[in-house]
Design a protein that fits this description.
Residues 28-38 have a biased composition (Basic and acidic residues). Residues 18-38 are annotated as: Disordered. The relative contact order is 0.23. The strands form 4 sheets. Strands 1, 2, 4, 10 and 14 form a 5-stranded antiparallel beta sheet that branches. Strands 3, 5, 6, 9 and 13 form a 5-stranded antiparallel beta sheet that branches. The chain has a two-stranded antiparallel sheet with strand order 7-8. The chain has one domain. The chain has 341 residues and is an alpha+beta fold. Helix content is 15%, strand content 26%. It is globular.
Length: 341
């Protein structure tokens, strides 16, 4: 019993993620997605309690426990939601035609491994739905133990799954391939923020613009083609969707809101090639990559993005629209991030 008591004491201390007494409690977010048919989703405390039972009661080695937890997908998670149904227009519209309006930041998740925000992460409301300034920084990362002292995960790459739930549609007209995803010019991209050490004065991540930096999209120097861009650097937004970053595009010329549910797992192994070899080595056994027909990025099925996420990483979502007349209508976006402890 002393062992379990020590677990709960450690959890209540560490899982707070460094909240200080003077910080206001973050508002609890509730989503309206129907989860009645979904499996039970445990808290971080429940996962560690089950691990303790498997270890102490059944005396299983940690390698087998890890396999059991992963096989059952018994992972804690955090949810981040942005809901525009409460806006006067009941939606948000991203219009093409201008770089300032056709690349729109929508949300950022909690740092990976935190069930509550670090004390500096929610100091300002703009942290929810505003991008960081495009500041170039040297790729000098904080040691992993600076995160492990604040949170429960003890592995460098703890992420196991990301679920994106997007409710959206395009302008409802135009396009050559109506009611398909071919040549859709409205879509959603994934982004990534990570705490980087700007200088030796910072010995731990702050999770605010002092150390939090944008890795995706890339930051580049302002060029002569960048009209009305202030500062020396800006984000690099390609004209077309990048196959390894596009979460989902809208169905072409369909003005009805559709709920897209996209899961990225660490075990995904779909190649980015146009055709997938079934293993028999015969041309007739080659199957087309299924992701483009679902409106997803062709190179997002290999699990690399999930496997490469590190403790403290922040996932972001950007909405896109390109070419005259195209518009991205957004009702709600939710991101659920699952990890191991």
């Amino acid at each position: 019993m002393d062992f379990l008591s020590s677990i709960f004491k450690t959890l209540t201390t560490n899982m707070a993620g460094g909240l200080s007494a003077g910080d206001p409690a973050p508002q609890e977010q509730h989503d309206d997605i129907d989860r009645s048919t979904d499996p039970y989703e445990p808290t971080a405390m429940e996962v560690i309690f089950v691990r303790a039972i498997l270890e102490k009661a059944l005396q299983l080695p940690s390698e087998i426990i890890n396999n059991i937890i992963d096989y059952a997908e018994y992972w804690p998670h955090t949810s981040t939601v942005v809901d525009y149904s409460n806006w006067p227009e009941t939606q948000r519209v991203v219009h093409s035609g201008d770089p300032s309006t056709e690349n729109v930041f929508l949300l950022r998740t909690l740092p990976l491994g935190f069930v509550k925000p670090p004390s500096t992460f929610y100091k300002h409301q703009r942290n929810h739905e505003a991008p960081l300034d495009p500041i170039p920084r040297e790729q000098k990362e904080f040691p992993v133990d600076t995160y492990q002292s604040l949170i429960a995960p003890n592995v460098t790459h703890p992420c196991r799954k990301i679920k994106f739930t997007i409710v959206s549609h395009d302008q409802g007209w135009g396009g050559r391939y109506r009611n398909t995803y071919r040549e859709s010019h409205t879509w959603f991209d994934v982004g990534l923020e990570r705490c980087l050490q700007p200088n030796d004065d910072y010995n731990k991540p702050t999770f605010d613009p002092r150390t939090l930096s944008t890795l995706i999209p890339e930051v580049r120097e302002v060029g002569p083609e960048d009209n009305n861009v202030q500062g020396t650097h800006t984000f690099d937004f390609p004209l077309h969707p990048e196959p390894d970053k596009m979460i989902q595009c809208n169905m072409v010329a369909n003005n009805q809101f559709h709920q897209y549910e996209v899961e990225w797992k660490w075990t995904d192994d779909t190649t980015s090639a146009d055709f997938i070899d079934t293993g028999y080595g015969c041309e007739q056994d080659m199957l087309p990559n299924p992701l483009p027909n679902l409106g997803r990025g062709q190179a997002t099925g290999d699990g690399k993005f999930v496997r490469d996420l590190k403790l403290g990483d922040v996932v972001t979502v950007w909405a896109k629209a390109r070419y005259g007349g195209w518009a991205n209508y957004i009702k709600r976006v939710q991101v659920d991030v699952y990890w191991v402890v």
